[in-house]
Write a structure and sequence with these properties.
Pfam families: Creatinase_N, Creatinase_N_2, Peptidase_M24, Peptidase_M24_C. With about 600 residues, the protein is of the alpha+beta class. It has 3 domains: about 140 residues, 3-Layer(aba) Sandwich (Creatine Amidinohydrolase, Chain A, domain 1); about 130 residues, Creatine Amidinohydrolase, Chain A, domain 1, CATH 3.40.350.10; about 240 residues, Creatinase/methionine aminopeptidase superfamily (Creatine Amidinohydrolase, Alpha-Beta Complex). The mean pLDDT is about 95.
Length: about 600
């Protein structure tokens, strides 16, 4: 079993730990302290030892922040976590506010705290965020102080140990390019920009650039690591020595100097007088401070690994396609189970999550889940990032909807798929809302678009059918996905907030519009797809990019209201199901194959 369903977080943590934090703050002369969700590596999913926001507040969401003063404390969470943050925090200890409006910085700007001192940990904040915090602090009359030691770390007596999972080579048959060649490409870009070196602070970027993987972060094969890539093609790689091996050293070769993590600070000092590329959106403010102290010339620019990593090569696309077909067979077996055994109304959310996990395990090549399965029955499905626990576990009751969002980590690809299915007979509203979500999904899957288009330009396509009905959803429509890396990967995304990164061939994104009726049900349909090369359109004047689908599993035909589909949309569904049958049919048999044939039969 790769996941457990223990109760995580909860209001008892805030009740217990906020007084301990305030005592540690007082000892450092702090009236307040800012707590971001992110850790030293700006990770979304955190090792237990770095989950400071949960320790202080009890909130376990993957996005959030808190402002803690001696007389008040506020937790900030976005629309995905509106209900979760209420359940996991004690209102006597923590007020609840929203992200991004007002967010912690907007809230602070509206306070009157002249003469007070607010602490922050420069290792946990990017300079972009720090600049906004500084402006907000001025408006509030607050003096900022960078702490040498995080007061949470001082107060956290039972803090878990740092992970020490082995770092292993990632074979070129999966990566599609030798690590030396990748770094030579990066070196050429650095030379062109006039940089002598680039500091790589993101573990995902390090993993890609060196063709290595690790196990320090749950559900993501990442080694906690840093690197300095140099314009001459050599590199320094910083790892805990306990994670290294002779096999790893042989893989890295003589162009890479392997150094312990403790040498990051002196290595930055060695860059004195050099021009150093550093990403102000990813690297912590601490790195900028150390380079300034060393007398380096800082070149603020995007992590040079991000775009090459995001634009998958032919090997990565082929591997991802193969992983999705295998994963689709496991998901199809699960959907058959949902449509047969689970229709009794007695199966629970945990039963379902474990059943799907078991089908993936039977593939024989599952290395991990790509995130904890979102297994939401009835009203729990209305929580977009719901995590089932032994305390929240519900039955899949007849007359309800069940939403499952899940994925796997395989050596050749990372999967992420969401399906919503009826348990028993669905209502007319359920069918209508599902079909509106499906229409938006089809619009985004089928679109053609010119070079230079960003995900922000496309986001409204997926929302349009819902908007016309006066409906919407409070999360992004699509995120980037790695190849045996993080299930959430930038810099591309499809969402309302502006994104300046144009979609490029080889980028993988999710397509996941949804609708959530609080207290009743949630609906989301998610496939992964990748950007195709520009191609001519008959009668057109410009080449257009498009999307190719990666995810193959039947849709819930009992939830589709055919009267709401246009002829073109109906044709899309039938084509999709025909392709599902062609790819998944050979991998299943017996009752499952019979069921799949019926599910993929043409709708009319």
């Amino acid at each position: 079993m790769r996941q457990n369903f223990d109760v995580k977080g909860g209001p008892q943590l805030g009740r217990k730990n906020l007084p301990l934090l305030r005592a540690a703050m007082k000892a450092q002369g702090l009236d307040g302290f800012y707590i971001p969700h992110e850790d030293e590596f700006q990770n979304e999913y955190l090792p237990a030892c770095n989950d400071r926001l949960t320790w202080a507040t009890g909130f376990t969401g993957s996005a959030g922040a808190a402002m803690v003063f001696q007389d008040t404390a506020v937790i900030f969470a976005d629309g995905r976590y509106t209900l979760q943050v209420r359940d996991q925090t004690d209102r006597d200890f923590l007020e609840i506010s929203g992200l991004p409006d007002p967010g912690p910085f907007g809230w602070l700007a509206g306070q009157k705290r002249k003469g007070e001192t607010l602490g922050y940990d420069a290792r946990l904040m990017t300079p972009n965020d720090l600049a906004v915090l500084e402006e907000s602090a001025k408006k509030a009359g607050v003096t900022l102080k960078a702490v040498d030691t995080n007061p949470i770390d001082e107060a956290w007596d039972d803090r878990p140990a740092e992970p020490t999972e082995q770092v292993v080579p990632h074979a070129v048959k999966h990566a599609g390019e030798e690590a030396d060649d990748k770094r030579e490409r990066i070196a050429a870009a650095l030379k062109e920009d006039g940089a002598d070196a680039a500091i790589i602070t993101s573990p995902a970027s390090v993993a890609w650039a060196f063709n290595i993987r690790g196990g320090d972060v749950a559900c993501s094969p990442l080694p906690l690591s840093r690197a300095i890539l140099k314009a001459d093609g050599t590199a320094d790689l910083f790892l805990d020595p306990r994670k290294t091996s002779d096999k790893l050293r042989e893989h890295l070769g003589n162009k890479v100097r392997l150094r312990p993590m403790e040498e990051v600070e002196p290595a930055l000092a060695e860059l004195s007088g050099q021009t150093v590329s550093l990403d102000p959106a990813l690297a912590s403010a601490w790195f900028f401070g150390e380079l300034e102290k060393a007398g380096a010339n800082i070149l603020p620019q995007r992590d040079p690994v991000l775009l090459p990593k995001a634009c998958k090569n032919a090997t990565e696309i082929a591997g991802t396609e193969a992983a999705h077909i295998r994963d689709g067979a496991a998901l199809t077996r699960f959907l058959h189970w949902l449509d047969t055994d689970a229709q009794s109304g007695e199966a629970t959310e945990i039963d379902a999550a474990l059943k799907l996990e078991s089908f993936r395990e039977q593939l024989g090549d599952l290395n991990d889940l790509s995130f904890e399965t979102i297994s939401g029955a009835g009203p729990n499905g209305a929580l977009p990032h719901y995590r089932v626990s032994s305390a929240s576990n519900r039955k899949l009751e007849r007359g309800s909807l069940y939403l499952v969002d899940s994925g796997g980590q395989y050596l050749d690809g990372t999967t992420d798929v969401t399906r919503t299915v009826p348990i028993g007979e669905p209502s007319a509203d359920m069918r209508r809302h599902y079909t509106l979500v499906l229409k938006g999904h089809i619009a985004l899957a089928d679109v053609r678009f010119p070079e230079g288009t960003t995900g922000t330009h496309l986001d409204a396509l997926a929302r349009h059918p819902l908007w016309q009905a006066g409906l919407d959803y409070d999360h992004g429509t699509g995120h980037g996905v790695g190849v045996y890396l993080g299930v959430h990967e930038g810099p591309q995304r499809i969402a309302k907030p502006w994104n300046s990164v144009a979609l490029r061939p080889g980028m993988i994104v999710s397509n996941e519009p949804g609708f959530y009726r609080e207290g009743q049900y949630g609906i989301r349909i998610e496939n992964l797809q990748y950007v195709t090369e520009p191609a001519d359109i008959e009668g057109g004047e410009r080449k257009m990019l498009g999307f190719a689908n990666l995810t193959w599993a039947p849709l819930a035909r009992d939830l589709i209201d055919l009267e709401l589909l246009s002829p073109a949309e109906l044709a899309w569904v039938n084509r999709y199901h025909n392709d599902v049958l062609a790819r998944i049919g050979p991998l299943v048999d017996g009752e499952v194959l019979d069921w799949l044939n019926a599910q993929c039969a043409p709708l009319s």
